[in-house]
Amino acid sequence: MSTKVKWGVLGVANIATKKVIPAMQKGEMSEVAAIASRDRTNAEQAAKELGIPKAFGSYEELLADPEIEVVYNPLPNHLHVPWTIKAAEAGKHVLCEKPIALTVKEAASLIGVRDRTGVKIQEAFMVRTHPQWVGALDRIRSGKIGKVKSVSCYFSYCNLDPNNIRNIADFGGGALMDIGCYLVLSSRLIFDEEPSRVIGLIERDPDFQTDILTSAILDFPSGQAVWTCGTQVAPYQRVLAFGNKGRLEIEIPFNAPPDAPCRIFVDVSSTGRDPETIEFETADQYTIQGDLFSKAIREGGSQAVPLEWTIKNMTVIEAIFRSAQTSQWEKPSV
User: pLDDT value at position 96?
Assistant: First the structure.
Protein backbone atom coordinates (compact mmCIF):
# COMPACT_ATOMS: atom_id res chain seq x y z
CA MET A 1 0.00 0.00 0.00
CA SER A 2 1.32 3.40 -0.96
CA THR A 3 2.12 5.96 1.71
CA LYS A 4 -0.44 8.42 0.34
CA VAL A 5 -4.09 7.86 1.10
CA LYS A 6 -6.34 7.62 -1.97
CA TRP A 7 -9.27 10.04 -1.88
CA GLY A 8 -12.49 10.13 -3.88
CA VAL A 9 -14.62 13.27 -4.18
CA LEU A 10 -18.42 13.26 -4.38
CA GLY A 11 -19.60 15.98 -6.75
CA VAL A 12 -18.00 18.92 -8.51
CA ALA A 13 -18.95 21.67 -6.06
CA ASN A 14 -16.87 24.85 -6.26
CA ILE A 15 -15.48 24.35 -2.76
CA ALA A 16 -14.08 21.03 -3.97
CA THR A 17 -12.80 21.94 -7.43
CA LYS A 18 -11.55 25.44 -6.65
CA LYS A 19 -10.15 25.07 -3.14
CA VAL A 20 -10.02 21.65 -1.52
CA ILE A 21 -8.83 19.41 -4.36
CA PRO A 22 -6.01 21.71 -5.59
CA ALA A 23 -4.86 22.12 -1.99
CA MET A 24 -4.94 18.41 -1.22
CA GLN A 25 -2.96 17.67 -4.38
CA LYS A 26 -0.09 19.57 -2.76
CA GLY A 27 -0.19 17.36 0.31
CA GLU A 28 2.34 14.80 1.43
CA MET A 29 -0.22 12.24 2.60
CA SER A 30 -3.18 12.75 0.26
CA GLU A 31 -3.82 11.65 -3.32
CA VAL A 32 -7.07 12.65 -5.04
CA ALA A 33 -7.62 9.52 -7.13
CA ALA A 34 -11.22 9.91 -8.30
CA ILE A 35 -14.11 12.34 -8.66
CA ALA A 36 -17.78 11.58 -9.29
CA SER A 37 -20.79 13.50 -10.54
CA ARG A 38 -24.32 12.53 -11.44
CA ASP A 39 -23.37 13.88 -14.86
CA ARG A 40 -20.40 11.91 -16.18
CA THR A 41 -19.42 14.76 -18.51
CA ASN A 42 -19.03 17.09 -15.54
CA ALA A 43 -16.93 14.52 -13.71
CA GLU A 44 -14.71 13.91 -16.73
CA GLN A 45 -14.24 17.64 -17.29
CA ALA A 46 -13.28 18.23 -13.67
CA ALA A 47 -10.94 15.23 -13.72
CA LYS A 48 -9.23 16.52 -16.85
CA GLU A 49 -8.82 20.06 -15.52
CA LEU A 50 -7.50 18.87 -12.15
CA GLY A 51 -5.44 15.90 -13.32
CA ILE A 52 -7.51 13.34 -11.43
CA PRO A 53 -7.04 9.77 -12.78
CA LYS A 54 -10.63 8.51 -12.51
CA ALA A 55 -14.03 10.03 -13.26
CA PHE A 56 -17.34 8.39 -12.42
CA GLY A 57 -20.88 9.15 -13.61
CA SER A 58 -22.45 8.31 -10.26
CA TYR A 59 -21.54 8.48 -6.60
CA GLU A 60 -22.30 4.78 -6.26
CA GLU A 61 -19.58 3.91 -8.80
CA LEU A 62 -16.99 5.82 -6.82
CA LEU A 63 -18.01 4.14 -3.57
CA ALA A 64 -17.68 0.75 -5.25
CA ASP A 65 -14.06 1.40 -6.29
CA PRO A 66 -11.86 -0.70 -3.97
CA GLU A 67 -8.87 1.65 -4.42
CA ILE A 68 -10.65 4.58 -2.80
CA GLU A 69 -9.92 4.71 0.94
CA VAL A 70 -11.57 7.95 1.98
CA VAL A 71 -14.34 10.13 0.59
CA TYR A 72 -14.62 13.91 0.70
CA ASN A 73 -18.29 14.92 0.80
CA PRO A 74 -18.91 18.54 -0.30
CA LEU A 75 -22.51 17.93 -1.40
CA PRO A 76 -25.36 20.29 -0.42
CA ASN A 77 -26.09 20.24 3.32
CA HIS A 78 -29.16 18.01 3.13
CA LEU A 79 -27.08 15.31 1.42
CA HIS A 80 -24.27 15.25 3.98
CA VAL A 81 -25.66 12.57 6.26
CA PRO A 82 -27.17 10.25 3.61
CA TRP A 83 -24.00 10.06 1.53
CA THR A 84 -21.71 9.98 4.54
CA ILE A 85 -23.61 6.91 5.70
CA LYS A 86 -23.44 5.29 2.26
CA ALA A 87 -19.71 5.95 2.05
CA ALA A 88 -19.11 4.55 5.54
CA GLU A 89 -21.13 1.44 4.76
CA ALA A 90 -18.98 0.99 1.66
CA GLY A 91 -15.96 0.90 3.97
CA LYS A 92 -14.73 4.42 3.19
CA HIS A 93 -13.56 6.96 5.74
CA VAL A 94 -15.38 10.28 5.34
CA LEU A 95 -14.41 13.94 5.56
CA CYS A 96 -17.73 15.77 5.29
CA GLU A 97 -18.22 19.47 4.74
CA LYS A 98 -19.84 21.51 7.46
CA PRO A 99 -22.46 21.47 8.77
CA ILE A 100 -22.17 17.72 9.06
CA ALA A 101 -25.96 17.40 9.51
CA LEU A 102 -29.19 19.41 9.58
CA THR A 103 -30.21 18.30 13.06
CA VAL A 104 -28.67 16.95 16.24
CA LYS A 105 -30.51 13.67 15.75
CA GLU A 106 -28.99 13.27 12.29
CA ALA A 107 -25.53 14.13 13.54
CA ALA A 108 -25.76 11.76 16.50
CA SER A 109 -26.78 8.91 14.19
CA LEU A 110 -23.31 9.04 12.65
CA ILE A 111 -21.78 7.78 15.91
CA GLY A 112 -23.51 4.46 15.47
CA VAL A 113 -22.57 4.32 11.79
CA ARG A 114 -18.93 5.02 12.61
CA ASP A 115 -18.79 2.43 15.37
CA ARG A 116 -20.56 -0.20 13.28
CA THR A 117 -18.42 0.25 10.17
CA GLY A 118 -15.10 1.02 11.87
CA VAL A 119 -14.33 4.01 9.65
CA LYS A 120 -13.35 7.53 10.67
CA ILE A 121 -15.87 10.32 10.10
CA GLN A 122 -14.93 13.97 10.48
CA GLU A 123 -16.52 17.35 9.84
CA ALA A 124 -14.40 19.56 7.60
CA PHE A 125 -13.65 22.42 9.99
CA MET A 126 -10.37 23.26 8.25
CA VAL A 127 -9.77 26.33 10.44
CA ARG A 128 -9.14 24.11 13.46
CA THR A 129 -5.66 23.11 12.29
CA HIS A 130 -4.51 26.30 10.55
CA PRO A 131 -1.30 27.61 12.19
CA GLN A 132 -2.95 30.91 13.14
CA TRP A 133 -5.64 29.11 15.14
CA VAL A 134 -3.12 26.73 16.68
CA GLY A 135 -0.99 29.73 17.63
CA ALA A 136 -3.92 31.76 18.93
CA LEU A 137 -5.22 28.93 21.09
CA ASP A 138 -1.72 28.18 22.41
CA ARG A 139 -1.44 31.77 23.60
CA ILE A 140 -4.89 31.73 25.15
CA ARG A 141 -4.25 28.41 26.92
CA SER A 142 -0.91 29.68 28.26
CA GLY A 143 -2.67 32.61 29.94
CA LYS A 144 -1.20 35.27 27.68
CA ILE A 145 -4.36 37.40 27.91
CA GLY A 146 -5.40 36.08 31.32
CA LYS A 147 -8.70 34.37 32.00
CA VAL A 148 -10.98 34.70 28.97
CA LYS A 149 -14.24 36.42 29.87
CA SER A 150 -15.64 37.56 26.54
CA VAL A 151 -15.57 36.42 22.91
CA SER A 152 -16.84 38.51 20.02
CA CYS A 153 -17.15 37.24 16.44
CA TYR A 154 -18.52 38.42 13.11
CA PHE A 155 -18.80 36.61 9.77
CA SER A 156 -20.78 37.80 6.76
CA TYR A 157 -21.13 37.97 2.99
CA CYS A 158 -23.76 39.17 0.52
CA ASN A 159 -25.44 36.59 -1.73
CA LEU A 160 -28.81 37.41 -3.30
CA ASP A 161 -28.92 34.57 -5.84
CA PRO A 162 -32.17 32.60 -5.30
CA ASN A 163 -30.65 29.57 -7.05
CA ASN A 164 -27.59 29.39 -4.81
CA ILE A 165 -27.81 26.42 -2.44
CA ARG A 166 -26.97 28.71 0.49
CA ASN A 167 -30.30 30.44 -0.13
CA ILE A 168 -32.44 27.31 -0.42
CA ALA A 169 -34.13 26.39 2.85
CA ASP A 170 -34.85 22.78 1.86
CA PHE A 171 -31.14 22.25 1.21
CA GLY A 172 -30.16 23.47 4.69
CA GLY A 173 -29.24 26.96 3.56
CA GLY A 174 -29.01 30.10 5.65
CA ALA A 175 -26.45 32.06 7.62
CA LEU A 176 -26.36 29.96 10.79
CA MET A 177 -25.77 26.66 9.00
CA ASP A 178 -23.33 28.04 6.44
CA ILE A 179 -21.13 30.38 8.46
CA GLY A 180 -22.61 30.65 11.94
CA CYS A 181 -21.28 27.16 12.59
CA TYR A 182 -17.78 28.69 12.52
CA LEU A 183 -18.77 31.20 15.19
CA VAL A 184 -20.10 28.44 17.42
CA LEU A 185 -16.84 26.57 16.83
CA SER A 186 -14.74 29.66 17.61
CA SER A 187 -16.57 30.35 20.86
CA ARG A 188 -16.25 26.76 22.07
CA LEU A 189 -12.57 26.55 21.09
CA ILE A 190 -11.59 29.75 22.84
CA PHE A 191 -13.45 29.04 26.08
CA ASP A 192 -12.54 25.33 25.88
CA GLU A 193 -15.88 24.46 27.44
CA GLU A 194 -19.53 24.11 26.49
CA PRO A 195 -22.21 26.81 26.77
CA SER A 196 -24.84 26.10 29.42
CA ARG A 197 -27.50 28.10 27.57
CA VAL A 198 -27.90 30.22 24.43
CA ILE A 199 -30.23 32.84 23.07
CA GLY A 200 -30.70 33.73 19.42
CA LEU A 201 -32.29 36.37 17.23
CA ILE A 202 -33.01 35.62 13.58
CA GLU A 203 -34.15 37.66 10.57
CA ARG A 204 -35.36 35.61 7.61
CA ASP A 205 -35.58 36.48 3.92
CA PRO A 206 -39.28 36.79 3.00
CA ASP A 207 -38.76 34.82 -0.21
CA PHE A 208 -35.94 32.38 0.59
CA GLN A 209 -37.16 31.70 4.16
CA THR A 210 -33.54 31.21 5.16
CA ASP A 211 -31.99 33.14 8.04
CA ILE A 212 -30.08 36.09 6.60
CA LEU A 213 -29.07 37.76 9.86
CA THR A 214 -28.52 35.72 13.02
CA SER A 215 -27.12 36.93 16.32
CA ALA A 216 -26.52 34.89 19.44
CA ILE A 217 -25.30 35.03 22.99
CA LEU A 218 -23.65 31.89 24.33
CA ASP A 219 -23.44 31.69 28.12
CA PHE A 220 -20.35 29.72 29.17
CA PRO A 221 -19.29 28.86 32.73
CA SER A 222 -16.32 31.23 32.30
CA GLY A 223 -17.92 34.05 30.34
CA GLN A 224 -20.00 35.04 27.34
CA ALA A 225 -19.69 34.88 23.57
CA VAL A 226 -21.62 37.37 21.45
CA TRP A 227 -21.68 37.16 17.67
CA THR A 228 -23.49 37.85 14.41
CA CYS A 229 -23.49 36.18 11.01
CA GLY A 230 -25.23 37.39 7.87
CA THR A 231 -25.68 36.53 4.20
CA GLN A 232 -27.07 39.82 2.91
CA VAL A 233 -24.63 42.31 4.44
CA ALA A 234 -21.15 43.54 3.61
CA PRO A 235 -18.50 40.79 3.72
CA TYR A 236 -16.39 40.74 6.85
CA GLN A 237 -14.92 38.35 9.38
CA ARG A 238 -13.14 38.73 12.71
CA VAL A 239 -12.72 36.90 16.02
CA LEU A 240 -11.73 38.59 19.28
CA ALA A 241 -11.06 37.12 22.70
CA PHE A 242 -10.91 39.35 25.79
CA GLY A 243 -9.25 38.23 28.99
CA ASN A 244 -8.62 40.01 32.27
CA LYS A 245 -5.04 40.78 31.18
CA GLY A 246 -5.42 41.54 27.47
CA ARG A 247 -7.08 40.74 24.17
CA LEU A 248 -6.34 38.57 21.15
CA GLU A 249 -7.67 39.24 17.67
CA ILE A 250 -7.63 36.95 14.62
CA GLU A 251 -7.63 39.07 11.48
CA ILE A 252 -8.89 36.56 8.88
CA PRO A 253 -10.12 33.67 11.00
CA PHE A 254 -12.05 31.59 8.46
CA ASN A 255 -11.10 32.32 4.83
CA ALA A 256 -7.38 32.30 5.52
CA PRO A 257 -5.55 33.02 2.24
CA PRO A 258 -3.45 30.14 0.89
CA ASP A 259 -0.96 32.50 -0.73
CA ALA A 260 -0.25 35.08 1.99
CA PRO A 261 0.67 35.10 5.69
CA CYS A 262 -2.00 35.38 8.36
CA ARG A 263 -1.84 37.66 11.39
CA ILE A 264 -3.16 37.77 14.90
CA PHE A 265 -2.87 40.70 17.29
CA VAL A 266 -2.21 40.37 21.00
CA ASP A 267 -2.50 43.39 23.29
CA VAL A 268 -1.55 43.12 26.96
CA SER A 269 -0.69 46.82 27.35
CA SER A 270 -2.26 48.96 30.04
CA THR A 271 -3.83 51.21 27.41
CA GLY A 272 -5.25 48.50 25.15
CA ARG A 273 -3.81 50.40 22.18
CA ASP A 274 -0.44 48.74 21.74
CA PRO A 275 -0.99 45.36 20.08
CA GLU A 276 1.78 42.96 19.15
CA THR A 277 1.41 41.67 15.59
CA ILE A 278 2.20 37.99 15.18
CA GLU A 279 2.54 36.74 11.61
CA PHE A 280 2.25 33.11 10.58
CA GLU A 281 3.94 31.72 7.51
CA THR A 282 1.81 31.10 4.43
CA ALA A 283 -0.14 27.85 4.65
CA ASP A 284 -3.14 26.29 2.92
CA GLN A 285 -5.62 25.12 5.54
CA TYR A 286 -7.16 22.59 3.13
CA THR A 287 -3.78 20.95 2.51
CA ILE A 288 -3.23 20.67 6.26
CA GLN A 289 -6.73 19.34 6.86
CA GLY A 290 -6.40 16.64 4.20
CA ASP A 291 -2.97 15.50 5.29
CA LEU A 292 -3.89 15.29 8.97
CA PHE A 293 -6.98 13.22 8.21
CA SER A 294 -4.95 11.01 5.88
CA LYS A 295 -2.35 10.58 8.61
CA ALA A 296 -5.04 9.59 11.13
CA ILE A 297 -6.28 6.98 8.65
CA ARG A 298 -2.87 5.60 7.72
CA GLU A 299 -1.35 5.63 11.21
CA GLY A 300 -4.50 5.10 13.25
CA GLY A 301 -4.03 8.26 15.29
CA SER A 302 -6.53 10.71 16.71
CA GLN A 303 -8.55 13.09 14.56
CA ALA A 304 -8.21 16.87 14.69
CA VAL A 305 -11.98 17.24 15.04
CA PRO A 306 -13.56 14.20 16.73
CA LEU A 307 -17.13 13.37 15.75
CA GLU A 308 -18.37 13.65 19.35
CA TRP A 309 -16.94 17.18 19.56
CA THR A 310 -18.53 18.30 16.32
CA ILE A 311 -21.93 16.93 17.32
CA LYS A 312 -21.83 19.34 20.27
CA ASN A 313 -21.48 22.16 17.74
CA MET A 314 -24.77 21.02 16.21
CA THR A 315 -26.48 21.04 19.62
CA VAL A 316 -25.63 24.75 19.97
CA ILE A 317 -26.86 25.54 16.45
CA GLU A 318 -30.14 23.75 17.08
CA ALA A 319 -30.58 25.52 20.43
CA ILE A 320 -30.12 28.90 18.71
CA PHE A 321 -32.83 28.02 16.20
CA ARG A 322 -35.14 26.99 19.07
CA SER A 323 -34.40 30.19 20.97
CA ALA A 324 -35.28 32.33 17.96
CA GLN A 325 -38.72 30.66 18.00
CA THR A 326 -39.34 30.70 21.75
CA SER A 327 -37.65 34.05 22.49
CA GLN A 328 -36.13 32.35 25.53
CA TRP A 329 -32.81 30.95 26.67
CA GLU A 330 -32.39 27.38 25.42
CA LYS A 331 -30.03 24.66 26.63
CA PRO A 332 -27.96 22.76 24.03
CA SER A 333 -28.67 19.05 24.29
CA VAL A 334 -28.30 15.83 22.31
Answer: 98
